[in-house]
Specification:
Elements lengths: L27 E6 L3 H16 L3 E3 L7 E6 L4 H17 L3 E5 L5 H7 L5 E2 L5 H11 L23 E5 L1 E2 L10 H5 L3 E2 L2 H13 L4 E5 L14 E2 L2 E2 L2 H9 L4 E4 L12 H6 L5 E3 L7 H7 L5 H14 L4 E8 L6 H14 L3 E6 L17 H24 L5 E9 L5 E5 L10 E3 L11 E9 L4 E5 L2
Parallel strand pairs: 1-2, 1-3, 3-4, 4-5, 6-9, 9-12, 13-14, 14-15, 18-20
Antiparallel strand pairs: 7-8, 10-11, 16-17, 16-19, 17-18, 19-20
EC number: 2.8.4.4
Cofactor: [4Fe-4S] cluster
Family: Belongs to the methylthiotransferase family. RimO subfamily.
């Protein structure tokens, strides 16, 4: 059984799953969705609108009348990946519409691929639909093309991403996402709850709350209360926790009010899991990043979270080789990681991104030094993960079943594991009565560096 690789990109969403079967004569659109879960939600909304207008969703290039490529612009490597995907779609299909974060730079795309039919930016749903209408006119059948109550989902039906806001008010020097997606725009709380309730009614067992800055939810609308729901992350988490599904919080900045979420986790309303982008631990590096520089206080916060909710799992991402990072500053990061003992960790080697202010910083770190530091960082993170998982052997825990293969081996996740970016728990036998989407009790038998193995609890 293969274990999760330590190089897994923490900015990527699960691979989009297209399962529609178009009717005879139905115009069909393919979708390639790259980048983060927020982009995957955008793809779902686009396809839901198209499905309502009578379009079929094609799982491959050859069966589609046109292809939408939803791009990522997070890093230069992600931009290159997006350009490669556009080129592949052009070669295989020839009729390509580009959207997403990289679409904020249309000349960059058309300079490489002048044959694309249209380029639109992130969350520009109407412009995408207009481009599709021009390329492939709709032909709806009102007796057949009915929109499912839950819309089109690109994830397995037992979990779903729930986007609560767009944009970000931070000005981190290494990031251009706010330039592409704009300032924070929170959705009304009642609209989020309504969508979440529909998802749960349709069979979703786990809601993955996402945004660019989940902790800041509602700040832009002054935490407005409407129809009995207040736009504040603590209130929203409590309301979501009342729907009966697992609720997992992603991209939570460590503001002081995050501590108010911990009692909800201790009560079981929200999963005891926090995904917090710390990025680094040395105060000078954090200042050069234009991020809060209070790593020592963060350790105090982590200790308080664990005191109030001992089972909490903490995931984070870090950047090594940031411009000006000295060996001493990197060692501070390793020492901090030793103290913090985070459960799940992802790491990037710093990359210049066109338009980012960090490009102009002095003393860029050599590529071989960045690689060496990444190797040392991941070795320490792996050792921490292995020790933490070894301590779980013999414990009984609830897991959600993501997949069961032809041999009856079930791939599951614990409450400490988000889809694709964290570990798995495998059940090797006795799964005859188990179905995908079930939440079952298991006893952990074995632990590896990133994954667990267990048996169904008696």
């Amino acid at each position: 059984m293969a274990q999760n690789p330590p190089t897994l990109r923490p900015d990527l969403a699960p691979r989009a799953r297209l399962t529609d079967t178009p009717r005879a004569g139905q115009p069909t659109i393919g979708m390639v969705s790259l980048g983060c879960p927020k982009a995957l939600v955008d793809s779902e909304r686009i396809l839901t609108r198209l499905r309502a207008e009578g379009y079929g969703i094609s799982p491959d290039y050859t069966g589609a009348d046109a292809v939408i490529v939803n791009t990522c612009g997070f890093l230069d490597s992600a931009k290159a990946e997006s350009l490669e995907a556009i080129g592949e779609a052009l070669a295989e299909n020839g009729r390509v519409i580009v959207t997403g974060c990289l679409g904020a730079e249309p000349e960059y795309i058309t300079g490489v691929h002048p044959r694309v039919l249209a380029v639109t930016g992130p969350h520009q749903y109407e412009q995408v639909l207009d481009a599709v209408h021009l390329a492939v006119p709709p032909s709806p059948d009102p007796f057949i093309d009915l929109l499912p109550a839950s819309g089109v989902s690109l994830t397995p039906r037992h979990y779903s991403y729930l986007k609560i806001s767009e944009g970000c008010n931070h000005k981190c020097k290494f990031c251009i996402i706010p330039d592409m997606r704009g300032k924070l725009q929170s959705r009304p709380a009642h609209a989020v709850i309504r969508e979440a309730a529909k998802l749960v009614e349709s069979g979703v067992k786990e809601l993955l709350v996402i945004s660019q800055d989940t902790s800041a939810y509602g700040v832009d609308i002054r935490h407005a209360e409407e129809r009995g729901h207040r736009a504040h992350i603590t209130d929203l988490a409590r309301d979501l926790g009342g729907l009966g599904a697992w609720v997992r919080l992603h991209y939570v900045y460590p503001y002081p009010h995050v501590r108010d979420l911990i009692p909800l986790m201790a009560e079981g309303l929200v999963l005891p899991y926090l995904d917090i982008p710390f990025q680094h631990a040395h105060p000078e590096v954090l200042r050069r990043m234009a991020r809060p520089a209070a790593a020592a206080k963060t350790l105090d916060e982590i200790a308080a979270w664990r005191r109030d909710c001992p089972e909490i799992a903490l995931r984070s991402t870090f950047i090594v080789g940031y411009p000006g990072e000295t060996e001493a500053e990197f060692q501070t990061l390793l020492d901090w990681l030793d103290e913090a003992q985070l459960d799940r960790v992802g790491c990037f080697q710093y990359e210049n991104v066109a338009g980012a202010r960090s490009n102009a910083l002095p003393d860029h770190v050599a590529a071989e030094v960045k690689q060496e530091r990444w190797d040392r960082f991941m070795a320490k993170a792996q050792a921490i993960s292995e020790a933490k998982l070894a301590a779980k052997v013999g414990q009984r825990m609830e897991v959600i079943v993501d997949e069961i293969d032809a041999d009856g081996i079930a791939t599951c996740r614990t409450k400490a594991d988000a889809p694709e970016i964290d570990g798995n728990l495998f059940i090797d036998e006795g799964t005859e009565g188990v179905s995908v989407g079930d939440i079952v009790s298991v006893v952990v038998d074995e632990a590896g560096e990133y994954d667990l193995w267990g048996r169904l609890g008696e």
